[in-house]
Design brief:
Chain lengths: 161, 100
């Protein structure tokens, strides 16, 4: 199970119980910390998780069969992040460990963060994502490709009012 | 063989004409390259690492829109600037529109 010790950001925890309870898979939201997350919203998270895991029939009541063990190394990022920004659409992150440090990245924008723990790496990822947004925004008027990329970023990332 | 971040930064700047870019992390530096008609290519290099290991190398290659073997050739200087520019125009990896 991937956990975030310090939780300034609402990260979904994706738990692979396959080692202890067969092919089971659980997504939790830490709802006591984020009480505004609705059941429907959690359901949509599960659908996103299912999409990436090639599982067709996930519900809010897991278990789900036939999930790859590697999926336990994924987080879905949603909600407030750093410096008054928020993730407004679920962003699936991959967590990898190499030589005692952690690398967190997404498959959409190819942004990564790194750190000595998963919370450190997650915070670094958020810094990197904002940096990347600002780079793309600076180039957005130069050509259509950049403005399209900026629009794609804005579908996930928004400045809080 | 692990990659030296200093060498990577030198190669990106001197050979491939990436420009350093501001960021909010003291431990990383961004490099960006704008080619006509393409989205800006931006990569992030760690300052506080002695070497870049495999997974991070793969991530940087992905940010540069090439596969890892091609990236290694870029750093070893067996791929030229023109090779790289042609690659990201004709056969980027991942493709530009993937997942957007």
């Amino acid at each position: 199970m991937i956990t975030t010790q310090a939780q300034p950001f609402p990260v979904f925890q994706i738990q692979d119980r396959s080692r202890t309870r067969g092919a089971e898979f659980v997504v939790t939201t830490g709802s006591s910390q984020y009480p505004d997350l609705t059941t429907e919203f959690v359901g949509s998270m599960l659908n996103v998780a299912a999409m990436f895991a090639n599982v067709s029939d996930m519900t809010s009541e897991i278990p789900v069969k036939s999930l790859a063990a590697t999926f336990s190394m994924r987080h879905i990022l949603i909600g407030p992040i750093l410096e008054g920004w928020r993730i407004i659409r679920p962003l699936l992150l991959t967590i990898e460990e190499e030589d005692g440090s952690y690398l967190i990245s997404d498959d959409i924008f190819s942004v990564y963060g790194e750190g000595v723990s998963t919370p450190d790496a997650l915070r670094d990822y958020q810094i990197a994502l904002l940096d990347y947004y600002q780079i793309v925004a600076r180039h957005a008027k130069k050509n259509a490709a950049n403005s399209n990329l900026l629009e794609a970023l804005q579908r996930y990332l928004q400045q809080s009012v | 063989m692990p990659l030296d971040p200093g060498k990577l930064e030198a190669v990106l700047g001197n050979k491939f004409e990436f420009k350093p870019s501001d960021g909010h992390s003291d431990n990383h530096k961004w490099y960006e390259l704008q080619l006509d008609g393409l989205p800006v290519i931006a990569t992030r290099v760690s300052h506080n690492k002695k070497e870049i290991r495999n997974k991070l190398e793969g991530m940087i290659a992905r940010q540069l829109r090439v596969r890892t073997p091609f990236f290694r050739e870029m750093v070893r200087c067996t791929k030229s600037r023109d090779d790289y520019y042609e690659k990201v125009r004709k056969d980027p990896f991942p493709p530009w529109n993937e997942r957007l």
